[in-house]
DNA sequence: AAATGTGTCAACCGCGAGAGT
DNA sequence: TACTCTCGCGGTTGACACATT
């Protein structure tokens, strides 16, 4: 028996429209993420909230819904502008883990595996090749090269595994009713580190890591809408209604700004208010806003494997990954 | 101004893993 | 144990934007 097609024929493909995004986010708000198989079926009932003729609702395959959510709509996603730190981490981790983008993305909680993969394929790989070709180690070159230079791959992997193991341990401790603070982990890690690396002081720092603050999905959608408006100077009636809808929903002070005075727009406006309930589209930008509405935490319990739940370990791992080879040379197992 | 080349990135496809029956 | 279903991952594609000729 051959493998059954993952999706029915006739499902929509191609770029997602803001309407579809709204339907999806609305659905996930109500039902939570997961059970993707049911999403296309269950959102069909939501289609009629849009009265434009060109809207067909969410006739997407489950995979597509999941991908859209995890890569673009999920709260807390940072897009573009990779920092130098992130670059270094990616290079480090790629050298260690290979093209295991999901694993790499676990260390960059604000980035998606797809984003990292694209960044690597389109930019970092070329950059490293150039550096290698020129024989220079440059500012980034040493990061990847140092893996083989100053420490064997096996040593790195063991070190990574040790840290991951300890991070897991700390997490389970933190989750257990018996209260144990992450300082247990820290102490353990410090003692571990002090045995093999007396000069690397970063592990002795007890400075708390700022927790990752998640932006709301509205952030992402508003950004999408902005881009959409920008890219399509001539707006269709649908676009206008959606934009008005978004604005109406975003601006809680005024809900009559829609082009349609019908109950549909009121309903949609309410949907938006319920969904996003925050001030205006203007407040949305690509940066994280730490002062989000309570809805901003709506999806916090859902994300990709969240190692940020254990802030200290993540911070330490991050520091470790970004640590210069100077420190690495002194480490031994 | 048009044609062509190049880069970027959103989305798709196929496969494997794991859970459920 | 065998099978089905669903999810998640990594590789790849294709559309679009921008640069160059």
TrEMBL record:
It comes from the Eukaryota. Keywords: DNA-binding, Nucleus. GO terms for biological process: response to auxin. Residues 8-73, 74-124 form the Myb-like domain. InterPro entries: Homeodomain-like_sf (IPR009057), Myb_dom (IPR017930), Myb_TF_plants (IPR015495), SANT/Myb (IPR001005). It is found in: Nucleus. Residues 8-73, 74-128 form the HTH myb-type domain. GO terms for molecular function: DNA binding. One of its GO terms (cellular component) is nucleus. The keyword Membrane does not apply. Signal peptide: none annotated. This is Uncharacterized protein. It comes from Vigna mungo.
């Amino acid at each position: 028996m051959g493998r059954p097609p993952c999706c029915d024929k006739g499902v929509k493909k191609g770029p997602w429209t803001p309407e579809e995004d709204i339907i999806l986010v609305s659905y996930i708000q109500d039902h939570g993420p997961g059970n993707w198989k049911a999403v296309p079926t269950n959102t069909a009932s939501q289609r009629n909230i849009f009265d434009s003729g060109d809207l067909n609702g969410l006739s997407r395959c489950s995979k597509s819904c999941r991908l859209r959510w995890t890569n673009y709509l999920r709260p807390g996603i940072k897009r573009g502008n990779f920092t130098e730190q992130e670059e270094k981490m990616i290079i480090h981790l790629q050298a260690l883990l290979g093209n295991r983008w999901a694993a790499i993305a676990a260390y960059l909680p604000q980035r998606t595996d797809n984003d990292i993969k694209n960044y690597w394929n389109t930019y970092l790989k070329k950059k490293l090749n150039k550096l290698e070709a020129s024989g220079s180690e440059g500012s980034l070159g040493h990061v990847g090269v140092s893996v083989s230079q100053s420490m064997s791959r096996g040593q790195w992997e063991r070190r990574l595994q040790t840290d991951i193991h300890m991070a897991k341990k700390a997490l389970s401790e933190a989750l257990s009713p018996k209260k144990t603070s992450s300082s247990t982990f820290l102490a353990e890690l410090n003692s571990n580190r002090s045995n093999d690396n007396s000069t690397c002081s970063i592990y002795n720092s007890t400075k708390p890591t700022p927790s990752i603050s998640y932006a709301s999905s509205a952030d992402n959608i508003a950004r999408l809408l902005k881009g959409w408006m920008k890219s399509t100077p001539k707006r269709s009636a649908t676009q206008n209604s959606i934009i008005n809808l978004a604005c109406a929903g975003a601006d809680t002070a005024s809900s009559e700004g829609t082009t349609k005075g019908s109950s549909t727009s009121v309903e949609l406006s309410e949907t938006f208010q319920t969904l996003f309930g925050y001030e205006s589209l203007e407040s949305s930008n690509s940066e994280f806003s730490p002062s989000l509405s309570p809805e901003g935490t709506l999806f916090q319990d859902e994300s990709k494997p969240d190692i940020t739940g254990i802030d200290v370990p993540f911070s330490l791992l991050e520091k470790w990954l970004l640590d210069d080879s100077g420190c690495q040379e002194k480490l031994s197992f």
